[in-house]
Design goal:
The chain has 162 residues and is an alpha/beta fold. The chain has two domains: 70 residues, Roll (2,3-Dihydroxybiphenyl 1,2-Dioxygenase, domain 1), CATH 3.10.180; 63 residues, 2,3-Dihydroxybiphenyl 1,2-Dioxygenase, domain 1, CATH 3.10.180. Helices cover 17% and strands 39% of the residues. The chain has three helices and eight strands. The strands form two sheets. A four-stranded mixed β-sheet has the order 1-4-3-2. The chain has a four-stranded mixed β-sheet with strand order 5-8-7-6, with helices on one face. A hairpin with a 7-residue loop joins strand 3 and strand 4. The radius of gyration is 18 Å and the shape is globular. 13% of the residues are buried.
């Protein structure tokens, strides 16, 4: 028996929730399914703080019940949390997470990312998977990686049947 199911949500702690919404909602097309603010002693205790206010925006692909993206913006935190170092834009780092999305309009999204000034990690690549394995079909894949406003790598994968 498995101990857990599919990933329900990826939570991203963001510095500027409006900049993150401009990417995940406006550019990538995820839908806001919840937008709320939490504060008080219980929240502060959960986060190891003395005080704080947390805006939470959950986004989802249309109709998805899991695989959400949570944008979490902490304000008035006492003590203020430290920031992580911005990742090297030329390579991945051990321990670094990557948010991966499937798409059917990779080139259009890449054009909008470029117009919006988002940093890419290299150029898109094409590869052919000759045999299906599990839920991953055989066929042609095209993949590109860029960084969100907080330096989180985001990968876009487009699949075309062979």
């Amino acid at each position: 028996m498995a101990g857990v199911g599919p990933v329900k949500r990826v939570t991203l702690w963001v510095r500027d929730i409006e900049a993150s919404l401009a990417l995940y909602r406006d550019l990538l097309g995820l839908e806001v399914i919840e937008d709320k603010v939490l504060e008080g002693a219980a929240l502060a205790s959960l986060l190891g703080l003395e005080a704080g206010r947390l805006r939470i925006v959950h986004l989802s692909g249309q109709g998805a019940t899991h695989g959400w993206v949570g944008l979490y913006a902490l304000t008035d935190a006492q003590p203020p949390p430290p920031s992580l170092a911005t990742p090297d834009p030329a390579a991945f780092s051990y321990g670094q997470a990557v948010v991966v999305f499937e798409t059917r309009c990779l080139e259009s999204i890449l054009d909008r990312l470029d117009a919006g000034g988002y940093r890419r990690l290299g150029q898109p690549i094409d590869y052919v998977k000759p045999r299906a394995t599990g839920p991953t079909p055989a066929g042609r894949y095209r993949e590109a990686v860029f960084f969100d406003p907080d330096g989180v790598p985001v990968s876009l994968i487009q699949f075309d049947a062979a």
